[in-house]
Amino acid sequence: MADNPFRPRGGNGRQQLPEEVATYVRELIMSGQAKPGEFLRTEPIAEAVGVSNTPVREGLLSLRSEGFVELVPRRGFVVAPVSRQDIRDLFWAQAQFSSELAARAAKKITTDELERLEAINEDFEKAVEAGDQETVARLGHEFHRRINLAAGSHRLTMLLSSVVKHLPNRFYASIEEHVTATRNDHAELVQALRGRHARKARTIAEQHILEGADSVIKMLEERGLWSDGE
C-alpha cells in the first residue's frame, strides 16, 4: 500500500491523523485497490500515511461506522461488501445536494465569482491538455466548491460535504470519459449561472454528477471488483 498514489500529503494542510487514515483507506476501497473481503493490515497503512498504529485504528473505526469496513473479532478489519447500487446511491445523494446548490447559486452569484469560475475552468482546460491529473482533480473540486459557496446555504453545503467524503476525488481525473464530459459540463454550467437560469443550472449539475457514477462503476468493473452477476 505504500506506493498508493492517493497517499495524503503532509504540510500545513494536513487533516487530523485518524481522518487522514480514513481518507486513504476509503480511497483504496472506492478505487478498487482494496477489495471486499480483504483484511486491512495496520502496519502498511501506518507506513503509507506516515502515522503510528493508534490513528490507524481510530481511522478504521470511523470507516466502520460509515460501512466501509467490518471488524472481525481477534482478526482485525476487513473491507465490507460494496455494490454497484451503493456507488449509484452515493452519486445520487451528491447530485441532489449539488444540483440544489447550483440552482440557488444561479440566483445569488456575483460577477466576481463568475469570473473566478471562468478562470478556474481555463486552468482546468490547461491541466487536461498537459495531462496533469492531480491539478485536474484539484481544480474540478475547487470549481464545484466555489459554486456551493456562492449559493449561500451553509447547512446544505455541510450536508453535501458529509456525502462527498465517501467519494474520492482524485481518481476521477484518470477516467478519460469523465474528464471530457466535465470540460463540456463546466462551460455549460457557467453559462447557466451567468444567465441566472436556475432550472438549467440544476439540470446540468445533477446530470453531470450522475454520469460520473457510470464512469466509476465501469472503472471498478475493469478492475475486477465484482464477479459476474453481482
TrEMBL record:
Pfam families, A to Z: FCD (PF07729), GntR (PF00392)
Transmembrane stretches, start-end: none
Listed GO MF terms: DNA binding; DNA-binding transcription factor activity
Annotated protein name in UniProt: DNA-binding transcriptional regulator, GntR family
Organism: Amycolatopsis australiensis
CDD domains: WHTH_GntR
Stretches assigned to coiled coil: 107-134
Organism superkingdom: Bacteria
Keyword annotations of the record: Coiled coil, DNA-binding, Transcription, Transcription regulation
Record PROSITE patterns: HTH_GNTR (PS50949)
Record domain HTH gntR-type: where: 15-82
